[in-house]
Amino acid sequence: MASSLTCAGIVWAFLSFLCAAASCVGFFMPYWLLGSQLEKSVSFGTFRRCSYPVRDESRQTTVMVEQCGRYASFQAIPSAEWRICTVVTGLGCGLLLLVALTALMGCCVSDLISRTVGRVAGGIQFLGGKCSRGQGTGT
Fold first, then answer.
1. Using CA atoms, how far apart are residues 75 and 71, in angstroms rounded to an integer?
2. Strand 48-56 relative to strand 61-70, pairing
3. Do 50 and 42 form a contact (C-beta atoms < 8 A)?
4. How many angstroms separate the Cα of 54 from the Cα of each of 38, 51, 72, 101, 122?
5. Residues 6, 110 contacting (CB under 8 angstroms)
């Protein structure tokens, strides 16, 4: 397997993959905000939540569902801002993965990544990083 990447390019490819994987894991895990409600530990992320309250209409009370799961639909995400965060962060993680996997393929295939492709990939990676940067910070 031949590669047209320099040593710096190979390091960039592996670091890109590690950062993309970490961003995706952070995006999919429901542990952005931690707290307690009804004396139970709760946590949630942009589209997943653990231990959440549900209204029990038959008993006219609120009960805690002690399991992790996604919101039933995109519209069930609590606010428009939260939905925008989900889309933008997911898009950023997707861009990071696209660049990282392309860079890893560049380690195995000669002439896949030229100087121009590397610059474009760096720009896409910058955009993906900016999109996924605000995870859990409110920015």
1. 8
2. antiparallel
3. yes
4. 11, 10, 12, 40, 45
5. no
The per-residue b/e assignment along 101-115, b for 16 or more CB within 10 angstroms, e otherwise, is: ebbbebbeeeeebee
Residue ranges of domains in the chain: 16-119
- pLDDT tens across 114-133, in order? 788 888 888 888 888 887 76
Quick: pLDDT tens for 55-92: 888 888 888 878 887 877 888 887 888 888 888 888 98
Token readout for 102 is: 């392309």
pTM recorded for the entire structure = 0.72
